[in-house]
Amino acid sequence: MTAIRNGRSVSSRPRSACVRLTSRINYAASIGFVVIALASCGGGGDGGRTPTALLNKSVGRIDLSPASPATLVSGTTTTLNATAFTKDNRSLGTASVAWTSSNEAVASVSAGTVTAKLVGTAVITATSGSVSSAGVSVTVTAGAAAQLALRTQPAGATSGAALATQPAVEVRDAAGNVIATATAMITAALASGGGTLSGPVTATVVSGVAMFSGLTITGTIGARTLTFSALGLTSATSATFNLGAGVVSQLVIATQPVAGTAYAAFTTPAVVQFRDASGNTTPSTANVTVAIAFGGGTLGGAATVNAVAGAAMFSTLTVNGTAGPRTLTFSSSGLTPVTSASFNVTTAPPAIIGLSPSPATISTVTGQNPATVNLAISNTGVFPLTNLRVQSISYSPIAPAGWLATTFLSGSDAPATIRLTATSAAFAIGTYTANVVIAGDGAATTATLTVTLTVAPTVTNTYGTTASKVSVVNIGASISPGLVTTTDGAVSTTDPTVTFSARSPAIATVNAAGRITAVSPGQAWVAALSTQANADSVLVIVPYATGPVLKSDLTKLSYAVGDTITIRVQLDTRGLSVGAVTATVTWPVWTGSTGVSGSMTFVDITTTASPMAPVTTVNQTVNVIRIHGASAAGVTGTVLLATVRLRVARRGLTGVYLNASELLGADFTNLLPTATFTQYPVIVP
Fold first, then answer.
1. In the predicted structure, residue 275 carries a pLDDT above the cut 80
2. 289 and 385 share a domain?
3. Is 347 part of a structural domain of the chain?
4. Within a domain: residue 344?
5. Is residue 453 pLDDT above 60, yes or no?
6. pLDDT over threshold 60, residue 495
7. Which of 181, 216, 244 marks a domain boundary?
8. pLDDT (tens digit, 9 = 90+) per residue, 113-129?
């Protein structure tokens, strides 16, 4: 507002404006500015005050004192001072700064006090906000020698041999710095574990380190530590390491042998160990050989044994001979032999003839040679059983006699094997017995084996007639091939143990009575199984539900070498009209050392009865017959394409395979996708 005072216009400022200005001045001072009062809050007249000027107090730089590089001995300290200045170079005095070291392990700093630790160089810096001082370099040197410490721990200790890893010991100051100028003499000693420490047990410090060489520990295996000492210095102890067994130097009988009877294993077998000079068992796997040192006789069982973990056990050893005292000697290459304490061997009990199986049974059926039976003869006693022989054979009934033959297969000393063979096939139905008396040297008594020969009638199961061993059965249809049981060639009561099994039940199933039902396309064997007679099978061919079937009227499975097989190749159109067909008849070709041959040989082919006037080609090199037939009007029903004859040339399992590469309807429709092609096994026993 403006007032007239003493004839002049005077401006005055409201009281509230003065208060606001004062507040701003106070804030400026609080953030580091220097406040200078220039005038009062009033105007140019009385009561007015001049405005206040603000000066910048923020840190522009920090100087450290002393600023020159310093060298400190480890463990000592020095003090640095930090002075702050404004940007216009006005001193702010001792500032509140943060102190840092570039390497705290070498030198640490707190409130300007620097403490030397490990040998090296660190840079000390003071910081306020974003402003940092120039660094002061501090170099730390080692202090006075105070202690010993291991640079290299001892390791690889075996009794009597120098440590594989020899220790290295350093002289250090209190902070752990190596004293390169130290020249102390360091002495090594066993700290724990016992034994003897040998070799140079003192070593001279060179450049702060004493390198030991040749330190050797001799003693029992186990954990060890070493201690290292020097005059005026704190000693050091190594980490724990293990002392192992040393080089083998001796054989030791750890377990003395205790014998029972001659020819029998020892009741307490000898155990021999490979040991070092301190008596430690080594991990040797060398062999030890035993011999009789005193008392005579021979040794049985294993006389040379390989050690396991340094120990050789003679668990199968026997002493064979007369009763009396014995000693044994044990030897191994490069070592001094050792001799056992004396032990006694008693007289061996006699041998005992053991027979297995006993009694023995031979079973056969009329008209067949009986099977042979092998009899094992063992010695269940102790004394050796030798010169085994059949002393006599008696028969019941007395006639027929001489039907049992015996043959030793593996020598006549136990253990041995005798083959028992019934020598005739002309036995009537019944049971026959032979008592075989077996003797042997060393046995006090003979042994008698009862052999029973059982002759049963020949029972044969035939599943399917000659006309139904191979059958083509449509899906959903069923057949009953029939089961016939004969006893010695005469039809008899049906075998009660027969069960029926379909090998591929997804194609054909069979019920408990042997009736077969076709399920899906394919070929399936169905078997009649018996627990007291033979098994027999039939083959079922299941065609697709619709479409032609290329087949034959073969129903037989089994043939003999030289038989002629007549194959009527037929096309069942199954309601369709067929205009053309190219069919093939094939059978296996075998390639052997004598060249290429077939299981069957081609005889001839006839097509005169076919309404499709086929043209045929025969390739006997690869056993393929091609049949090309056609009819302009088309054919229906079951049509004969050709009659092929083959002769069986060799034993084994073979077959005849019918296929087609062309099959057209009278309207030229391709019928191959829905056609069924068949194959017929030929079994030549």
1. yes
2. no
3. no
4. no
5. yes
6. yes
7. 244
8. 999 999 999 999 999 98
Q: Averaged over 505-518, what is the pLDDT?
A: 96
**Counting every residue, how long is the chain?**
685
Q: What are 316's two structure tokens?
A: 């199968």
DSSP annotation of 476: T
Q: Nearest-5° angle of CA 10, CA 13, CA 18?
A: 145
Q: What is the mean pLDDT of residues 262-275?
A: 97
CB 152 within 8 A of CB 212: no
- State the Cα–Cα distance between residues 524 and 654, nearest whole angstrom: 17
- Measured CA distances, 552 to 464, 581, 585 (Å): 18, 16, 11
* pLDDT average, residue stretch 484-507: 91
Task: Specify the number of domains making up the chain.
Answer: 7
Strand partners, 232: none
Containing structural domain, residue 12: 2-56
Q: Is 627 contained in some domain? A: yes
Query: Residue 348 falls within a domain, yes or no?
Result: no
Residue with tokens 């996708």, as numbered in its chain: 673
Furthest-apart CA pair in the chain: how many Å? 180
> Could you give the 3-state DSSP secondary structure of residue 466?
helix
Pair type for strands 470-472 and 53-56: unpaired
Residue 463 phi, psi (nearest 5)? -100, 115
**Sequence-ordered list of residues with C-beta below 8 angstroms from that of 667, at least 6 positions apart, any chain:** 577, 579
pLDDT digits (tens, 9 = 90+) for 70-109: 999 999 999 999 999 998 888 887 768 999 999 999 999 9
Same domain for 463 and 514?
A: yes
CB contact set of 420 (below 8 Å; sequence gap of 6+): 360, 362, 372, 373, 374, 375, 404, 405, 406, 436, 451
Tell whether pTM > 0.85. Answer: no
Residues 447 and 498 in one domain: no
Residues 669 and 569 placed together within one structural domain of the fold: yes
Mean pLDDT of 184-213: 97
560 shares its domain with 446: no
pLDDT digits (tens, 9 = 90+) for 381-398: 999 999 999 999 999 988
| Residue among 370, 534, 365, 362 nearest 458 (CA) | 365
